[in-house]
């Protein structure tokens, strides 16, 4: 489904700067976007900034709901925004808690985080040394030995016989497969019953044990919710597993084994926010600029190119004829229109739809439920927004392949896709961006058309007919 994929040309991004411990994600985003200003034909206006979208200060098609849909259906990374929204809510709820047990969750300081990072680095270096020593012992006397001693044919034969004996049982049954690792996704449940809490606690305990961390105190505030976060976002094979390195995961689990304070998520939260600001948000704005679906934009580009070719043919015919030079400038109207149409289509805009300030709906909007907006306005006490899966902080994996609209949209023919339902563009900042792109397209058409017209007017006539 072409509508559900980012155009590779528009998805080119500046190199993502790694968020250091003291770097603000906002400054990282400004540096990354600013260093590649040539990649943005129109700068992202402040009205469409990341904070404006998160705070709900934008209109369709640039709302938080649209951002979540983009990450879910287009970029397939909705877990980043889901975790970011949960962490913001968790910070507010934790800081507003006045119960005495809050003292059991001390702040995870920057010094403790640096110490944990240094410890993991030492363990990593020691592990590399041990692995190197083991491999040297295993390869000693072989062709791969570091000392360069080659084995004789007898040793190679005995080595091959040893390996063949070791794997004889496995090769005797070619249909045998190793047992599959049980998935933890099916064990998660969306309800908050006691059995679910026990399941999350057991999964969190397994994650702590795998990372070599001590078991945390279960009497700490919000410990059950932290266990659920680990089971949903942090541990291996989690339904919404974040894209974390093994070192980042261990560092986070070390912090969570000591405290449930929001500062334990400092490193991961900063990394996720940087990814959203530097990668997801610019891609989302590029995607919002498109006012038509891919078939409609391709049709507009084809019409623009066809108009340019037709005007060039008209120029050539007039140059070969006996008509006065002044008539050779008439195809300039078609040339300017064709270049402007093609350039706007290259940027994802259909000029016809821009003239009426409208855009085509996305497939999930065409076949969506009318009650979705009402569901998203309900905020539960646990910080989850409504019963809608994509806005719930916890739930199953972010998958949409089984949703009814996917099959329905695939069955639509090309003509119906060209004339999908249209709606008014409500966001003023987005209309301003469209105006700038249209003016740039028109200016490009006038400049290129003027140069070509001057060339064809100055060419001597052929007088062939």
Automatic annotation (TrEMBL):
This is RGS domain-containing protein. Residues 143-197 are annotated as: Disordered. The lineage of its organism: Eukaryota, Fungi, Dikarya, Ascomycota, Pezizomycotina. Residues 188-197 have a biased composition (Polar residues). It comes from the Eukaryota. SUPFAM superfamilies: Regulator of G-protein signaling, RGS (SSF48097). Keywords: Membrane, Transmembrane, Transmembrane helix. InterPro entries: RGS_sf, RGS_subdomain_2. Residues 159-172 have a biased composition (Basic and acidic residues). The chain crosses the membrane at residues 299-323, 329-352, 437-462.
């Amino acid at each position: 489904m072409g509508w559900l994929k980012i155009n590779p040309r528009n998805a080119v991004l500046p190199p993502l700067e790694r968020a250091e411990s003291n770097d603000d994600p906002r400054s990282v985003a400004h540096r990354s976007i600013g260093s590649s200003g040539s990649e943005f034909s129109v700068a992202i206006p402040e009205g469409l900034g990341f904070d404006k979208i998160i705070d709900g200060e934008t209109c369709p098609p640039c709302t938080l709901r649209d951002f979540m849909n983009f990450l879910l259906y287009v970029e397939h990374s909705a877990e980043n925004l889901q975790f970011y929204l949960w962490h913001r809510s968790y910070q507010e709820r934790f800081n507003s808690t006045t119960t005495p047990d809050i003292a059991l969750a001390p702040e995870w300081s920057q010094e403790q985080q640096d110490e944990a990072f240094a410890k993991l680095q030492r363990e990593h270096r020691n592990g590399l040394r041990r692995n190197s020593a083991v491999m040297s012992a295993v390869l000693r006397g072989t062709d791969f030995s570091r000392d360069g001693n080659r084995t004789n044919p007898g040793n190679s034969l005995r080595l091959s016989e040893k390996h063949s004996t070791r794997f004889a049982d496995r090769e005797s049954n070619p249909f045998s497969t190793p047992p599959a690792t049980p998935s933890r996704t099916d064990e998660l449940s969306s309800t908050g019953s006691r059995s679910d809490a026990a399941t999350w606690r057991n999964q969190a305990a397994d994650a702590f044990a795998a990372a070599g961390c001590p078991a945390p105190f279960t009497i700490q505030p919000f410990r059950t919710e932290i266990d659920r976060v680990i089971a949903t976002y942090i541990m291996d094979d989690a339904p919404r597993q974040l894209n974390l390195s093994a070192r980042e995961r261990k560092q986070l689990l070390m912090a969570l084994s000591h405290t449930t304070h929001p500062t334990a998520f400092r490193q991961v939260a900063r990394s996720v926010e940087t990814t959203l600001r530097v990668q997801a948000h610019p891609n989302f704005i590029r995607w919002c600029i498109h006012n038509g679906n891919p078939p409609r934009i391709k049709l507009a580009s084809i019409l623009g190119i066809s108009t340019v070719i037709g005007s060039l043919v008209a120029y050539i015919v007039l140059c070969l004829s006996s008509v006065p030079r002044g008539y050779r400038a008439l195809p300039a109207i078609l040339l300017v229109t064709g270049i402007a149409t093609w350039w706007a289509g290259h940027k994802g805009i259909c000029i016809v739809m821009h003239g009426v300030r409208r855009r085509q709906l996305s497939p999930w909007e065409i076949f969506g439920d009318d009650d979705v907006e009402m569901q998203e306005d309900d905020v539960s006490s646990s910080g989850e927004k409504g019963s809608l899966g994509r806005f719930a902080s916890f739930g199953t994996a972010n998958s949409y392949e089984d949703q009814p609209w996917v099959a329905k949209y695939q069955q639509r023919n090309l003509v119906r896709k060209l004339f999908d339902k249209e709606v008014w563009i409500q966001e003023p900042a987005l209309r301003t961006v469209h105006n700038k792109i249209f003016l740039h397209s028109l200016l490009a058409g006038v400049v290129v058309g003027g140069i070509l017209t001057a060339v064809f007017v100055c060419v001597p006539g052929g007088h062939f007919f």
